[in-house]
Amino acid sequence: MKILIAILILLLVALQYRLWFGDGSLSEVVQLSRELELQKQRLRELEERNRILEAQVLDLQNGLDAFEEKARNDLGMIKQGETFIQLIPEEGGGGDGN
Length: 98
Description:
Layout: H1 2-21, H2 26-75
């Protein structure tokens, strides 16, 4: 009977050792949980950064269209390969109803 009790105690000690110090121990699980939370926080920060960058890209794409329109209308600029045609209204014969 003493041998059986000794074997059971040794088995209990071995299992407790693995629980506290071995692979998959409680301390390792706690450490991995902390690292997981840090990674989740970093992921949220990167997703927010990506949303900001995406908004900036969209603004730049739309902004370039606005800049191009302004350059065409206000400065008379044209793209390479385009032909510029300027219509000059007649003086005195007016197409404005005068």
